[in-house]
Description:
Number of domains: 1
Order of helices and strands: HHHHHHHHHHHH
Shape: globular
Radius of gyration: 18 Å
Strand content: under 5%
Number of strands: 0
Mean pLDDT: 80
Oligomer: single chain
Largest sheet: none
Helix content: over 70%
Low-confidence stretches: 144-148, 287-296
Number of helices: 12
Distance between the termini: 33 Å
Amino acid sequence: MRRPTTVELMLSTTILLWALNLSATKYILEHGFQPLSYATVRYGLAGAVFVALALATEGSLRIERRHVGTLVVAAVILWLNQLAFVLALDVSAASTVGLLLGVMPIFAGLFGMLLGREQLTSRFWVAAAVSAAGVALVAVGSGHEVSGGLEGILLGLAVPATWAAYSVAVATLMTTYSAIRVSAVVVPLSWVLIALTGIPQTSAQDWHVGWEVWALLAFATLGPLVLTNVLWFRSLGRIGPARATLAVNLQPFVAALLAVILLSEPLGALQILGGALIAAAILGARRRAAPAQAGID
């Protein structure tokens, strides 16, 4: 049997950690942490780690003045992404959010087209329509609580939409700076916005949540947020975004399966069928992957 290559191991580790992050975050939110309090602590820790890594490996956080505006825009988009992520998991099942992540390549293609970086074919638009049908089935299958279901679906769709926008926004920066340096600037900026938004919840947060929750928070920060950032962009550098993105298409189903196993969440036939349609749409489009497209932090 052929031994897996280094790139395959890096991608497999990245996908597994991203998928585990959904179940870990859902557990954390169900066992004491308020959504915005959690995001505030997690991004504060991640920002400090990224700054330390950048200074240790590159000795500088210097960014050229002409790139400051792009970094600020990226930080705002990442702030919106994290709000959508924690609020979606607060009101919806981790398996549902996981399946909705499958539409990320569709959003990346649309944003790439708007910025003139993508030329979308008729096959892409067919794939987008099929993907939309898949999202509708996931929504119907998870809509046992109508208000919560609708809110969760909209927030769940905002997660891949904002992450795709962020990936497209920082793509040009990756030709000048390393992923670690970009993260060392963007993550702390996003943390400031998250912290300000989360003041009401953070000030009322009961911090006695148990060591298990704190341990999971440390894992969610160091693994799915920090380590995967390094592994993902190293993989991109070796095999390119197109091949790497094909592997990431497995993430929604791994995330949904882990949520069912670890959290005992129900996964109905309509949700499974919707997820299958999303996957078929992405594989059928077979378009070029957007530069620096990544998974959900």
